[in-house]
Amino acid sequence: MRIAVIQLGYGDDESMPERVERVTSLVRGVADERRPELVVLPELWGPTGFDYHRWEGLAESLDGPWAKAMTEVAAEAGVTLHAGSFIERLPEAGPDGRTLANTSVLVTADGERTAYRKVHRFGFGSGEPKLLEAGTEVVTAQIPSGTGDPVTVGLSTCYDLRFPELYRQQLDAGAQVFVVPAAWPAARVEHWTLLGRARAVEDQAFVVQCNTVGTHARTVMGGHSQVIAPTGEVLAEAGTDEEVLVVDIDPALVTSTRESFPVLADRRL
Questions:
Q1: Which stretch of DSSP H or E encloses residue 151?
Q2: Whose CA is closest to 160, among 201, 196, 107, 203?
Q3: Which of the following is catalytic: 88, 118, 133, 210?
């Protein structure tokens, strides 16, 4: 199964429509040149991860222009696209009284969509917790692998990576690959790479992490997107510029790793 991770760079001078146009062109180009089955984009690359005051004005429904553009480019490119996330305008306010959510969308080439609302909101009471509803569901999806059987992917977003219990629940739901789009700052990028390897080793699953680069809202982004094997081996890692990682993975390695070192069978909790 071939995976393309698009580590997108952007600043504050590019409008969301301009960025959507640029990103859809990138997806088409990567699909034409490298023929991946799965393409992954970062968190909140349209409305930006830290420019909170823009979120209300850029929020859309799940059937809005952003989601439609992502569905169309997945079909045109003939790929499954993890489109990163956007600010979703909810049909009604949630339990916290918020009407917005940080929602990621996975869409197959034939238009089948899976949405995940970020469970763990970053900001310690401000930022995301102040503005967004928290997701409540563990979400997995089966996607074509190009090698026969479909692959089960678990969906999470950025700050979720710090909470291993979410990944245990995805594991129990059959996840073989964890896909983690992010807008992770440079100040804590060592945590980003370390936690990704930890999630891979403890759950014996592939981890696909897609971060952003550049500076927006005076926040320097960390880059270092990576793909990690169930053994903890880093199969590919980006630097701090816009970059595309293309990695071939064998989903059967998940099964063989779990059989050869059956640590998961010793779980007590």
A1: strand 151-155
A2: 196
A3: 118
- Smallest CA-to-CA distance from 45 within 71, 22, 19 is with 19
Is residue 43 annotated as a catalytic residue, yes or no?
A: yes
Helices (H), the chain: 16-34, 55-58, 65-77, 128-131, 164-172, 189-203, 252-260
User: Tokens 């045109």 map to which residue?
Assistant: 76
Angle at 162 between CA 159 and CA 163, to 5 degrees: 105
pLDDT class for 256, splitting at 50, 70, 90?
A: very high
Q: How confident is the model at residue 42 (pLDDT cuts 50, 70, 90)?
A: very high
Q: What are phi and psi of 139, to 5 degrees?
A: -125, 125
Of these residues, 43, 128, 133, 243, which one is catalytic? 43
Catalytic residue among 37, 158, 210, 243: 158
Whether 158 sits among the annotated catalytic residues: the reply is yes
Task: Report the pLDDT averaged over residues 147-160.
Answer: 94
- Does the predicted model carry a pTM greater than 0.85? yes
Residues 144/110, Cβ–Cβ less than 8 Å? no
pLDDT in tens, 182-202: 999 999 999 999 999 999 999
Backbone dihedral angles phi then psi of residue 180, each to the nearest 5 degrees: -130, 90
Question: For residue 62, which amino acid is it?
Answer: L
Task: Sketch the domain layout of the chain as residue ranges.
Answer: 2-266
Give the CATH number of domain 2-266.
3.60.110.10
Tokens of 88: 């979703």
Tokens at 249, concatenated: 């993975």
The predicted pLDDT at position 145 comes to 87
Q: What is the identity of the amino acid at 241?
A: D
